[in-house]
Input
Amino acid sequence: MRSKPELLAPAGDLERLKVALLYGADAVYFGGPAFGLRANAINFTLEEMKEAASFAHQLGKKVYVTVNIVLHNKEAKELITYLEQIEETGIDAIIVSDPYVIEMAKKYTHLEIHLSTQQSTLNYEAASFFQKEGVSRIVLGRECTKEEIEEIIDKVPVEIEVFIHGAMCAGYSGRCVLSNFLTDRDANRGGCSQICRWDFKLLDEENHPIEGERDFTLCSKDLSLLKYIPEMIEMGIHSFKIEGRMRSIYYIATVVSIYRKVIDNYFLKKNTYDDAYEKVLREVANRDSVPQFFHGSYGEDCSYYNGREEVSNQDFLGLVLSYDEKNKEALVEQRNYFKKGDHVEIFGPNHEVIPYQVSDIFDEEGNLIEIVRHPKQLVRIPISQRVEMYDMIRIVK
Amino acid sequence: MTKILVMPPHKEDLSKILKDADSILLGITDFSVNFTEISQDELKDVVKQVKKENKEIFISLNKNMHNGDLKPLESLLRECETYKVDGIFYYDVAVLQIHHRLSLEIPLIWSAEHLTTNFYTLSYWEKHGIGGVFLSNEITKQEILEIKKESHVPCIVQVFGYLPMYVSKRLAISNYLNHFQLPTASKDFFLWKEEKKYPIVERKIGTEIYSSFIQNSLGEYLEYQKHNMEYAFLSGAFLPIASFKRVLEIFKTVTEENLEESKKAIEKLFSNTDLGFLYKETVYQVKKNEK
Output
């Protein structure tokens, strides 16, 4: 039997890192104060990196830091100092795209090096090149099919990491600078403004618009390989990666916990697929998801002509901050409007989903209230079953 | 001397631009993106045609390679070596890996489009034996000249033409037309947004999108000459051959003295010229990192 793959989750900040690890991720990845591809996320300071590494290591888990921007002359000068600094924080590996970073990391640190998907590694010759250059893991390009992944694993002695869930680049990673040209924001240095989600008019050779019910867009549906997890485990893929460093704790907790369950169930020889999982994943993202290139299909079914009418998910009602065993009450921080009588579910890393109907709600002063309407409002709700810090409450539709 | 490297608008235009070019750059069907293509079967005769005029010919094999491309790529590289092609532009490191494994002598030009942005990474590839670099269009003139100064291999910089912005494996035009069942006989397509028109091309291997403007760095070309830039690249993609020929003549004859007049002559031919990123640094952190 194959060994258990790593479940790798994104972490936009320390809170999300803790949630990802507590909900079942084996490792997390995040950006530091420089050289990462999410320049507009709130990235980790060196101090926070230290705390992140320590938190993860206490749980027997790992943290990886992205150093995956495309360097310009002036930035490259500061690279060596930065690599030395982040090594001191105790992180487990760096994720790099520019080969010069590989060279410098090898020369000046003992950091483990993972090759970013930004390199668009899609074949065994390229994988072999980078393996010989000293990378211990390659994050394959998202355009790889199942057969291509298998052949690379078969031919190159390097750990392979594959995206299993989340948003997709419409183009080959590294080959899209639409953002640079249309908004002056550098896509390959963390400034991507997601032009692929914009609508355009498509014109013919005589400049006449070719108009469908919706405008033209490059937008792709999200990726979900939930159904194929057993196949992917059997292929010997080392790490399953979830996309989304900008996503909420609710998204991270939901997606991580579902994939955790599916992977664990495979090794327990239990059922690995459930329509209910798919439904929860679809609702948490508010976007359609498909297997994309994994089975060689990337036709119109993968395109997303939704007219940019996405609404943010409001299923996440509250975060449990603590539980009072004596009074059987949970202290909850509000994340979306909810009220007495709502049918909800409480889910967490250490117990099955608890169905629950909101009965009494008390505000901070102990007054009974009917509605929780204020962002981050603290309330107490009686729950007979024990819940825990970082459990989450979601609405049942 | 800065050599003029030219890509004709169409393969049929090759003979029309040979006189004014020092070197030719072409792609090969199914192995190239963003370049005017010839088929592998045509390669031998095209090389012969260019060499007969004592000009150089470079071939761009710059697509993202998948496993299935590797064997055909190997034989194509051998063919290029046999026909004495002057160099191979590559994007995917598989090309370099095969080149080394076969001990080929044909020079490889690191042509990773938007990623050829600094001299440190260039020095890395130099150690791996590359024979040249095609610089990114998204860096400033100052950065270009810094790289040129530090480089130990010939540098190529685009001075004229539409700029590539996007490559995808997806067939974006077909997907849209099929999804909404839109019949069209059109062979060329454009995207339109905020009064700007972007050429979009679909090939069997994916979709490409280009800038709304034609980069025209005629003045900078003179400066590049002073800094001994080895090659200036002019792309004829999407341009009428007559106008493009005229542009080539202007580049061949431009001097400090006739620069303004020459610029005006080009602006007369094309209303959508621009200097791209030569004097404009892209932003990448729009929100202050508060932590």
Summary: Chain A has two domains: 6-302, 316-395. The mean pLDDT of chain A is 93.
